[in-house]
């Protein structure tokens, strides 16, 4: 019996050499190819890119061989390339979709297989289920060309994705004021694909960019995984203080997510960062449009929506929900709790590079440092506090879900429960306008407990109650 490949919130991820093998990557590529053939896209171009993990370029070549064997033409990136750059290449090359070999922020043992549609954005949940169903059980059902033959015939063509993307960024934001501002910008690219982009984009002026963890090292030294949250970013936070930098920009392994450290070397959590980005677009750039948020992110966005008169739409967790809704509504911004943000005018894909540049523009236009920008935000919507606990679990998910429903708590952390939302996991709305969410990871055997509240002193009590409700303590 062959290994069952299951798509989570953002494609398939697995442990290299255990389940993530060349044969399984080829099977997965065949499922995607069959899906695209059913959509009538035979003969069209598909972009294939990859990250800096172990053997990613060879897994990408294996996927390209299968796509070519199914009658598609392949634009294969000529080097490890950020996810947002791959997404833009889909539009720039008029391709019908993309395959991206990356496990994003997962541990070094893993790799992954992301798929994208003609917008460069995530494929919706129904589409992912169809791809999964079309993955053959046997390698005998996989059609492939050899890499050398497909390259020679022009079915696989290597290309530079970076230059067109950088030209596109210059159309979205005027970088000259940032280059001339004389900032010291610390950048931690977490051994990943974002290396070199901020130095290249901000060169030529008084602003200085200091980049760390910018070589290829698939073991990710000095961090547990390339995820832009503590403790993975502690080295970068210290370097920010040591170098008297004005800000720390952090991109995850495939550079689709962006974290921030302030001028004091303190982490700015993802919920506050999402609200800051929306506030910047609404207040500083004077733009208007729908805000798309997952249910696990901040209610500060709802408050901003009311203040500026823009709609706020809430989705399930994952860009497979956010991206289609952004496309449908021509949203101003879309994002999620994990630190991924997408913007109108760009492709409907998380973009850690553009997100970082917008933060620098916010600083330059206001003359303020990150801590002062947060003060501006809180003056509008009040201060909100957030935290999350990730815990491995054993046993059946359905049994866990039944346990959570049966708990039926009246209070959590001392706050009255006002509503239970089960769109994606179990979100308990609280009387202060905050919430506690219990949900299963779509990519790992982990249960997540999150919360947001206006009461700083209640954060840990809310999380501990969440663990009890989930049967984890």
Written description of the protein model:
The chain is an alpha/beta fold and 473 residues long. It has three domains: 12-164, Alpha-D-Glucose-1,6-Bisphosphate, Chain A, domain 3, CATH 3.40.120; 173-381, 3-Layer(aba) Sandwich (Alpha-D-Glucose-1,6-Bisphosphate, Chain A, domain 3); 385-469, TATA-Binding Protein (2-Layer Sandwich), CATH 3.30.310.50. The protein contains 16 helices and 21 strands. It has helices at 22-38, 56-69, 83-92, 125-134, 147-152, 162-172, 176-180, 197-201, 234-242, 270-284, 300-308, 319-329, 352-366, 370-381, 397-407, 459-469; strands at residues 12-15, 45-50, 73-77, 98-101, 110-116, 156-159, 184-188, 208-212, 247-251, 258-261, 267-268, 291-294, 312-315, 333-335, 341-343, 385-392, 411-412, 415-421, 426-430, 435-440, 446-453. Helix 1 (22-38) packs parallel to helix 2. The mean pLDDT is 95.
Protein topology:
Elements: E1 12-15, H1 22-38, E2 45-50, H2 56-69, E3 73-77, H3 83-92, E4 98-101, E5 110-116, H4 125-134, H5 147-152, E6 156-159, H6 162-172, H7 176-180, E7 184-188, H8 197-201, E8 208-212, H9 234-242, E9 247-251, E10 258-261, E11 267-268, H10 270-284, E12 291-294, H11 300-308, E13 312-315, H12 319-329, E14 333-335, E15 341-343, H13 352-366, H14 370-381, E16 385-392, H15 397-407, E17 411-412, E18 415-421, E19 426-430, E20 435-440, E21 446-453, H16 459-469
Parallel strand pairs: 2-3, 2-4, 3-6, 7-8, 7-9, 12-13, 12-14
Antiparallel strand pairs: 1-5, 4-5, 9-10, 10-11, 14-15, 16-21, 17-18, 18-19, 19-20, 20-21
Helix pairs in contact: 1-2, 1-4, 10-11, 10-13
